[in-house]
Amino acid sequence: MASSGDRGPVEVLVLGPPIVRVGGAAPLRLTRALAKTVILLAARGGPVGLGEFTKELAVGKDSVHQNISKLRKLDIPIAQTGRGDTGEYHLEPAGCRIDAQEFARGADGEDIGAMLSLWRGPLPEFPQFLPKGLDAPWWATVKAARSRIIQRISELSEAERRRLAELPRFAGLFPGDQEVNRIRLHAPDAKPRLLVVEDDPDMMRQICRRLDSNYKITPLRGIDEWFDYRDHQAGQLALIQGALIDLSLTSKLNDKEGLEIVTHLRDKTGVAVALVTANSLESTEFDKLERMALYRLVDIVNKQSDDWYSALERTTRRLVGTGVQERRRRMETWLNAAHQKVMMETSDSDPDSVQGRLRHTRHVEWASLLGRVQVEDVDEVAKEVTRFCVACGASNEAPPPFAGPRPLPVPGLPVPQGGGRRRGQRQRDPYPRAAKCALARHDLQASPVLAEPAVRGAQPGSAPVPGGALLARR
Question: Could you give phi then psi for residue 375, rounded to 5 degrees?
Fold first, then answer.
């Protein structure tokens, strides 16, 4: 193994988007597999057994050994104790700086502000990996340190808290977190506005009780209340930032009237939407992703899941959170919806026709943007995502929910009025067959760090999904 001393100190930063830097150089370009391995080692802060690697990363033993070998060749100091199935790996603390362990050690120190500043963003998220955030066992040391920091801050006076310049940013990384709520500083009317449509009174009360401390909730108890709100309170609807919509809004449990509301929000607003259901909507993950792209859904939440309330809070953060990870999630949602629209409109096109070439161009651009969304500056790539959505005819006049803070409507200026159908009216096809955008040439960048190679080689008619798998489109 190469010595890290040959190239200088090593930094492993995982309290935010993962960064690994050797000798002060630019961050290493890690694949997802290598990034996950580093995160697990850094978060644990101690030896990680081979069995834990295979379980948490869902890979075989040979893949674990290969990933460790690749990281060592990049001069990351990883030591091994034991051999075979009983072997363990750990980062050598003398050979690298690990922000997670620095935070754990300094939680009881004098400089609280310095500890808060170590958090650069939300914890890294990968599908089927780290889904529980700090509740996952490998973050136990960091979570305990965060609890000690929160306890110390809660004992400070209001004036002393406000002198912690990093506190608002730190608290903003954990929207909806009940423990962090103890130290959160809320400005008047600063809560994100959330629309909740749910016909079950008991469920509505539980949702509001769970979310009310961090969100300004507009509760609607069925499709008829929605129609009235849409038609007579368009100004208030323009202020909504996220929406949780129950799929079934009658006692039948299979009416799917919630899709009426979702369709209007997709076609007429820039509101980020999640669908809530007590039924298993789709038989496969493929069908779920197809539906999410079709209706521009940020998430689908199952009320029957064991961790329903935790899932509800995670989904709500994805809808209206201002962190980098939340904005990236919403950009992915808008990209997938725009791509699906073009794929449906051009599905019967001859590959050599204008429509066929348009289909190919948009598909390649979409695949490139999905990779860029994960790693590039969020403000810069948001402009490109917005441009792509407009070019695909999948945008309306409402600002997208990922291009920074949404401007509020100016008093005296008109706001978009309600529209759509009443109960019983026939729904119009949301995707006309004629494409609405012209063929254009674009200089495309290859998907950078953390973008799966499969994305870069995607073919028209296939869609990279979280984790790098490919889905065949209809």
Answer: -130, -25
For residue 293, count other CB atoms closer than 10 A to its CB: 23
Write the DSSP string, 301-356: EETTSTTHHHHHHHHHHHHH--SHHHHHHHHHHHHHHHHHHHHHHTTT--TTSHHH
Retrieve residue 110's tokens.
Answer: 């004098």
Q: Which amino acid is at 394?
A: A
Listed in sequence order, the residues at least 6 apart from 403 whose beta carbon sits closer than 8 Å to its beta carbon are 379, 382, 383, 386
What are φ and ψ of residue 272, in 5° steps?
Answer: -80, 130
CA-CA distance, 416 to 238, in Å (whole number)? 8
CA dihedral 270, 275, 276, 280 (to 10 degrees): -170
* Residue found under tokens 């690298």: 96
| Single-letter amino acid code for the residue at 301 | V
- One-character DSSP codes across 54-116: HHHHT--HHHHHHHHHHHHHTT--EEEES-GGG-EEEE-TTTEEEHHHHHHHHTTSS-HHHHH
Which amino acid is it at 135? D
Give residue for tokens 């960064």. Answer: 19
If you count DSSP H runs as helices and E runs as strands, how many of each does the chain have, helices first?
18, 13
Tell which residue, 468, 464, 470, has the closest CA to residue 367. 464
Q: What percent of the chain has pLDDT over 90?
A: 32
Only one residue has tokens 């129950």, namely 246
Region 351-366: mean pLDDT is 92
Query: Locate tokens 């494409």: which residue?
Result: 435
- Conformation bin of residue 445: beta by default, left when phi > 0, alpha when psi is -120 to 50: beta
Residue 79: pLDDT above 50? Answer: yes
Other Cβ atoms less than 10 A from the Cβ of 461: the count is 15
Domain ranges across the chain: 1-185, 193-320, 324-407+414-472
Tokens of 254: 């299979």
**Amino acid of residue 221:** R
According to CATH, the topology of domain 193-320 is: Rossmann fold (3.40.50)
At 144, the pLDDT band (50, 70, 90 cuts) reads very high
pLDDT digits 0-9 by tens, 378-408: 888 888 998 899 888 876 656 677 765 443 3
CA-based nearest residue to 404, from 339, 327, 458: 327
8-state DSSP, 215:
S
Could you give the CA distance from residue 93 to residue 406 in angstroms, rounded to a whole number? 43
What number of other Cβ atoms are within 10 A of residue 394's Cβ? 22
Stretch 27-51: mean pLDDT, rounded? 87
- The pTM of this model reads 0.53
Task: Write down how long the chain is.
Answer: 474
DSSP 243-302: EEEES--STTS---THHHHHHHHHHH---EEEEEESS---SSHHHHHHHHHHHTEEEEEE
Query: Among the listed ranges 16-20, 59-63, 466-470, which one has the minimum average pLDDT value?
Result: 466-470
